[in-house]
Amino acid sequence: MLIHTGERRNNCTACCKWFRRRGDLKIHKPMHTGERSYQCTECNKSFTLKRDLTSHMLIHTGENSHHCTECNKSFTRTRDLSRHMLIHTGVKKHCCRVCDKTFRLRGYLREHMLIHTGEKSYQCTECNKSFTRKCGLTTHMLIHTGEKSHQCTECNKSFTRKCGLTTHMLTHTGEKSYQCTECNKSFTRKGNLTPHMLTHTGEKSHQCTKCNKSFTRMSDLRRHMLIHKKTSMK
């Protein structure tokens, strides 16, 4: 009946998020505590959720029983195959009610909604900085630990993230594999191509909550918000 009434009686004391069931609250709490009670017996890697451990174990067993009929890529789980198939079909059935932007996966939509809500539920225990995504917090924690496990074989420069090393390697190869279909301009990183494409489409999905002015890039919105911050301090 809670599904119909919408009642949520279980409150997280860390971020004040509410849940209908106590079990959902228990699953949510490790996000704040960092607790990982489910450990792999093969490589000792730990997980917060039992289902994540179950999926991880398939890496050791080598079980890839779900095959894509388009490209023959194999997956350990049915849901992973289902998500992969959206790449071939191009279906984007999850729509944002605020800006009408569509996404292939519900998870992508949830992540996108944080742009509108500004919610940051993942908090660093060292400096209290908050993040909208868990991966953002994980990457941030490397600042405190100083860990740089990804090393360049050309110049021995080290990086905290693999993507940082991948991008760095392009400085040695000079490769620019991300090309604009409108003007054929090329980029070394996909992250640079995406903002560039907005210059052609004119899309401005990042909106200021103070004056409703819109921007193509989040970095431009953040820069703009400083104007309101300075004004409120006067």
Would you mind describing this structure in some detail?
- Strands 1-2 form a two-stranded antiparallel ribbon.
- The protein is built from 10 helices and 16 strands.
- Among the domains are: 2-66, Double Stranded RNA Binding Domain (2-Layer Sandwich), CATH 3.30.160; 151-203, Classic Zinc Finger (Double Stranded RNA Binding Domain); 204-234.
- Helices cover 44% and strands 14% of the residues.
- The radius of gyration is 21 Å and the shape is globular.
- The mean pLDDT is 79.
- It is of the alpha+beta class and 234 residues long.
CATH superfamily of the domain at 2-66, by name, is: Classic Zinc Finger
Q: How large is the share of residues in beta strands?
A: 5-15%
Overall body shape = globular
CATH class of the domain at 2-66: Alpha Beta
Mean pLDDT: 79
Helix count, DSSP H or I runs of 4 or more residues? 10
Query: What's the Cα radius of gyration?
Result: 21 Å
- Share of helix, binned: 40-55%
What class do helices, strands and sheet pairing give? alpha+beta
Within the CATH hierarchy, at the fold level, what is the topology of the domain at 2-66? Double Stranded RNA Binding Domain
Termini separation comes to 51 Å
Compute the number of strand runs: 16
**What CATH architecture label of the domain at 2-66 applies?**
2-Layer Sandwich
Largest sheet: 2 strands, antiparallel
Order of helices and strands: HEEHHEEHEEHEEHEEHEEHEEHEEH
- Return residue spans where pLDDT drops below 50 for at least 5 consecutive residues: none
Strand order of the biggest β-sheet:
1-2
